[in-house]
Write a structure and sequence with these properties.
The chain is of the alpha/beta class. It has 2 domains: 107 residues, 2-Layer Sandwich (60s Ribosomal Protein L30, Chain: A), CATH 3.30.1330.30; 154 residues, Alpha/beta knot (3-Layer(aba) Sandwich). The protein is built from 12 helices and 12 strands. The strands form 2 sheets. Strands 8-7-6-11-9-12-10 form a 7-stranded parallel sheet, with helices on both faces. Strands 1-4-3-5-2 form a 5-stranded mixed sheet. Strand 3, helix 4 and strand 4 form a beta-alpha-beta unit. The two termini are 39 Å apart.
Length: 274
C-alpha cells in the first residue's frame, strides 16, 4: 500500500545517524542499562499500538525503517498528531541503534510521574488480583510475568526495589506491550511492599517450591496478591513463615519451574477470567 499525501507530510527523513532529533534512539542497547531521563524504547507494531493508547505513558517520537512505511498505514493512523515520525534507510537506522534493527519500528516513550504503591492499590477494585515481585532481576522473566499478568486479568504489578525496570527495551518487547498496559509501582523495600498489600486488605499468597498448600487447593477469594521471588534465592524464609505459602507440584526428581512459567500457572488458578 502506498503512503498517501497526509502520511508523506508527517514523515521526517533522517539521513545522518548523528541528527540530534533522533538522539534518544542512539546506542539503545548500551543506554538501556543506565536510563534515559524518564524515556524508554518501545519496539514493534504491537507494542507501539499499546503505547499510543496507554494512559500512564506518552509517545515522544516514532522511528521507522523506510521499507516499513508502506505496510504501516494503520500504525501511522494511530500516532498522535503531535508526535513526529522519523524515517531512515537501513544503514542509517542500524548506525543509530548500534546494531541491526530487523524490525525497523521503534518509538520513544516517556513515563508520567511515578505512582506510589499506596495510591495504586487504593484505586483497585474490591476483588483485585495483584502480582507482587521480589528480586526479579532478569528482563526476560520480568517481561514474561507482565505478559502473564495481562493475559490472566491481573489488575496491577507491585515490586520491591531489587527488581529490574519493566520498561527496559527487552522487558517491554518480551511482554508484548503488557508492561505498558498493566499498572505497576515500586515500594522502597520488600517489607514495605508486604505491609502495604496487607494494609490494603490483600491476602498474600507466596509461591514457593516448598509451599505448605497445593495450589490446586486454593479457594476463590477477594483481594489476592501473588508474591513471587527470584529464581535460586526465592522468598526469604522468615517471610514465607508469616504468609500463606503455596506450591505447584512437579516431578520429584526436578528442582523447580522458571518463575515466569510458575506465574502463569498460579495466575490461571487465581484469575476470575472464564
Amino acid at each position: 500500500m502506498a503512503e498517501n499525501a497526509e502520511d508523506k507530510a508527517r514523515l521526517v527523513r533522517i539521513d545522518d545517524p548523528d541528527d540530534p532529533r533522533i538522539g534518544p534512539y542512539r546506542d539503545i542497547r548500551e543506554r538501556d542499562l543506565v536510563g534515559r531521563q524518564g524515556r524508554f524504547v518501545a519496539e514493534g507494531r504491537v507494542v507501539l499500538n499499546v503505547l499510543f493508547s496507554a494512559r500512564r505513558f506518552e509517545a515522544e517520537s516514532v522511528l521507522l525503517l523506510e521499507n516499513r512505511v508502506d505496510g504501516s498505514r494503520d500504525l501511522l493512523d494511530a500516532v498522535p498528531d503531535s508526535v513526529p515520525v522519523y524515517v531512515a534507510p537501513a544503514h542509517v537506522l542500524d548506525a543509530i541503534a548500534g546494531f541491526h534493527m530487523h524490525r525497523g519500528i521503534l518509538a520513544i516513550g516517556r513515563r508520567r510521574p511515578n505512582e506510589t504503591v499506596s495510591d495504586l492499590l487504593a484505586a483497585l477494585p474490591s476483588d483485585a488480583l495483584v502480582v507482587a515481585l521480589a528480586g526479579i532481576a532478569n528482563h526476560d522473566n520480568m517481561g514474561a510475568i507482565f505478559r502473564n499478568a495481562a493475559a490472566f486479568g491481573a489488575d496491577a504489578v507491585t515490586m520491591d526495589p531489587t527488581c529490574c525496570d519493566p520498561l527496559y527495551r527487552k522487558a517491554i518487547r518480551v511482554s508484548v506491550g503488557a508492561a505498558l498496559k498493566v499498572p505497576f509501582a515500586t515500594a522502597p523495600s520488600l517489607d514495605d511492599l508486604v505491609g502495604k498489600l496487607g494494609g490494603a486488605g490483600f491476602n498474600l499468597i507466596a509461591l514457593s517450591p516448598q509451599g505448605d498448600v497445593d495450589i490446586a487447593d486454593l479457594k476463590p477469594g477477594r483481594r489476592r496478591a501473588l508474591l513471587l521471588g527470584s529464581e535460586g534465592m526465592g522468598l526469604p524464609a522468615a517471610l514465607l513463615a508469616r504468609l500463606t505459602s503455596v506450591r505447584i507440584p512437579i516431578a520429584s526428581d526436578f528442582d523447580s519451574l522458571n518463575v515466569a512459567a510458575a506465574s502463569a500457572i498460579a495466575l490461571h488458578r487465581l484469575s476470575n477470567i472464564g
